[in-house]
Recover the amino acids of this structure.
């Protein structure tokens, strides 16, 4: 059964979101997913496709904004299917359009949706998890991947598991999706051991996804299927589609109806939300500092820091603890690990003053 | 008496020293005195001459390294006498050569020596102090200016005053010069109330200076007088001159002999030794941060900092206290006020690795 199910699995990669908290590295024109944040020689988008290719071959669809289509194609010469959204309509429309197109080609098609800007450190565990998740999805359930919480994060939604899905090793039915909690509730969720992070990965039959969508948002489901049937409608119909996240549109109501399963994902998952998260996953180099880029440009003296010398200039850091220095051609950021979240506020200030050249 | 004495006073400005602790602003090619560190629109050298001109008119001699002659002339179009040293031979040779030249032109010439990279905040008090000091110098004493200590600095020499000089308002005979003390001794000096900082300013008859020098270093005094008499000897004789600071060569032995007076200088004096000292004298701008340069380039959020946006790039500083950010075209420094002294060590490391392009 395994091989035939995996042969029907398509990877859908929605590549959107600017990653504002990673300014000045990430900009509207060079969003997070186009950057090599792990200093691996591959961008987050390329790494995402790299880890999917052994599982799905060339059955990869990337959905991105029209502004980034060219950059996405340049980074992924092996991926033929790049769907360019005329404008951002949130994740349901992006993933749903790919599902509607694939459903036409193969009524039995399965899709897995994987964000273009997450980091996964154990690709073998990822492959094993996906294989089980695809098999569960083939039975007609919407399957989400549950990430073991490493701390009481307030930046992710949580999933509460429940009864096992009969016949599968680890899958459980999902009893509840909960939105990003406050610190106290996050603490309680993690302490209970019953909750996992919602990593935003879904596996589901293309037709199941659209049918579930049709139950709650019939216009959106119909619109997506219409565009898939006649691509010439895209420019005209796309802007009229409901802007909604896939979690709200489908996963939450389907969970209430007992149609969502969760497979635990024990594969080392990181959503690089800000420079503090990036520092945490970046190893210290010979000089004792964490450098994304050319380490020879950084002179550190009694300093613990994350330094990104993206402008090619020499950077000296002396006597500072847990400090972030990000150097680009036209903008420089200096902050601390503890305050890295606040980068967004600076970007908002720049936007408010019309500095589109810098954002 | 005042006017005639001041009419014979020449200002000698030795313009040397790289200011290594102010890297990456100051470099071998752009030393501290050529920089506008006070953000006043005038460099330290220009400000030095600006405050002397009302006192001495065009009787200004700048002594600088051959490598900086062109830059000095460009910054000081009104100063005709710029003496270029073929190589650095310390302050006694630099000031002594100017003294020997002036002595030939006017046997009664007085010289005042003023470093090119100090900041003085009260020019009127400076003028009053200099007027008394010149009058004392005209009597044949070597006169030094004593700076009221504001803290137990270990980076300056100290001067101990003694008996008043009869006939003058504030001048005292100097009983002792002491070298840069350790912290404990500095504390004791300041507590005693008997010591002042040696600000490195001397006023003396040109002939007196050279005669005092001849008592302890006859070859050096003779060499300087020979070169003054025949400038064609400069290139050949200069490298053979003893390399010694004016304090050691003349001031210390003359003090022992009772030939040195001190006039207190209550005019707000700063030797900008490092970025911490620069931060202390830089007022906070509208954004609450201290900016040397274009304040509109700096976005600070809950940060106390000194920022030098010398590369014209936008700089965001978030949630940091007492941090120094100095941004230049090819190098960036991030440190704290408390560790600003250690910039020198980084420059030494760069020099050790042959990075003359950066130092």
């Amino acid at each position: 059964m395994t091989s035939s199910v995996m042969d029907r699995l398509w990877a859908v990669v929605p590549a959107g979101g600017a990653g504002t908290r990673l300014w000045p590295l990430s900009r509207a024109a060079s969003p997070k997913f186009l950057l090599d944040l792990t200093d691996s020689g591959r961008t987050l988008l390329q790494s995402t496709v790299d880890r999917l290719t052994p599982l799905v071959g060339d059955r990869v669809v990337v959905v991105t904004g029209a502004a980034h289509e060219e950059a996405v194609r340049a980074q992924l010469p092996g991926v033929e299917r790049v769907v360019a959204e005329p404008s951002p309509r949130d994740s349901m429309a992006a993933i749903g359009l790919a599902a509607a197109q694939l459903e036409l080609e193969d009524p039995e098609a399965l899709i897995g949706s994987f964000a273009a800007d997450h980091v996964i450190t154990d690709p073998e565990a990822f492959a094993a998890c996906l294989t089980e998740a695809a098999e569960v999805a083939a039975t007609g359930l919407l399957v989400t991947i549950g990430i073991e919480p490493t701390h009481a994060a307030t930046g992710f939604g949580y999933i509460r598991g429940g009864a096992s899905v009969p016949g599968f090793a680890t899958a459980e039915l999902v009893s509840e999706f909960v939105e990003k909690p406050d610190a106290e509730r996050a603490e309680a969720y993690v302490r209970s051991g019953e909750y996992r992070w919602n990593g935003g990965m879904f596996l589901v039959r293309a037709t199941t996804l659209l049918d579930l969508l049709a139950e709650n948002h019939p216009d959106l489901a119909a619109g997506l299927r219409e565009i898939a049937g006649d691509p010439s409608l895209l420019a005209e119909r796309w802007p009229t589609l409901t802007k909604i996240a896939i979690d709200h549109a489908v996963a939450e109501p389907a969970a209430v109806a007992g149609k969502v399963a969760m497979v635990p994902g024990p594969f080392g998952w990181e959503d690089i939300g800000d420079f503090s998260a990036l520092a945490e996953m970046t190893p210290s180099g010979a000089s004792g500092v964490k450098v994304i880029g050319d380490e020879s440009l950084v002179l550190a003296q009694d300093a613990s820091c994350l330094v990104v010398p993206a402008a090619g200039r020499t950077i000296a850091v002396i006597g500072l603890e847990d400090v972030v220095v990000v150097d680009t051609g036209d903008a420089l950021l200096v902050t601390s690990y503890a305050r890295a979240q606040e980068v967004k506020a600076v970007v908002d200030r720049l936007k408010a003053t019309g500095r589109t050249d810098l954002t």
Observations:
- The interface with chain A takes residues 24, 299, 301-302, 313-320, 323, 325, 327, 329-336, 338-339, 342-343, 345-346, 349-350, 355, 358 of chain B (CB under 8 Å).
- Residues 2-271 of chain B form a domain with the Spore Coat Polysaccharide Biosynthesis Protein SpsA; Chain A fold (CATH 3.90.550.10).
